[in-house]
Amino acid sequence: METIWLSGAEWFAVLRIGLGLWWLESWRHKDKKTWFAGGGIGWAAGIAEEHRWPFVRRGFDAVVKPRPKLMAYVVAYAELALGLGLIFGFLTPIALVGGLLLNLIYFVLMIHDWAEQGQNLMMALISVGALFAVCWQSWSADATLGLFL
């Protein structure tokens, strides 16, 4: 594939790094004190409680509601791990699939909020494109270590 300036693999590495920076920003902008005190999960509980799809309410009540502190840490540190993994290209396919799943969870939970949907759909699209383009071939710890060849 001929491209301007960079190779196709390098352009997908740019997308991968940009997606990693986006996840890192998701982690960075959280008010950690409020988030870990239950603010984030409390907000999500309100969304789930009024959700138009009953399976979302039931799933939230079964998985998240009984363990709000643990889930707050899981969400925040998953975003941090995804960001760092994608930026440095370490365990990249795992990070891409994990990020795609997290975006789909956010998408389903926030189905009524179109502003959030744009972000989640764009991040999911980049994840799928980067995954199928094998974006860890360039500028990554995975390539340096010979992982996922």
TrEMBL record:
Membrane topology: Multi-pass membrane protein
Alphabetically ordered keywords of this record: Membrane, Transmembrane, Transmembrane helix
Subcellular location per the Swiss-Prot or TrEMBL entry: Membrane
Recorded coiled-coil stretches: none
Positions of transmembrane segments: 6-24, 94-114, 121-139
One Pfam family of this chain: DoxX
Region forming the signal peptide: none
Principal subcellular localization: membrane
Name recorded for this polypeptide: DoxX family protein
Organism of derivation: Streptomyces crystallinus
Upper classification of the organism: Bacteria, Bacillati, Actinomycetota, Actinomycetes, Kitasatosporales
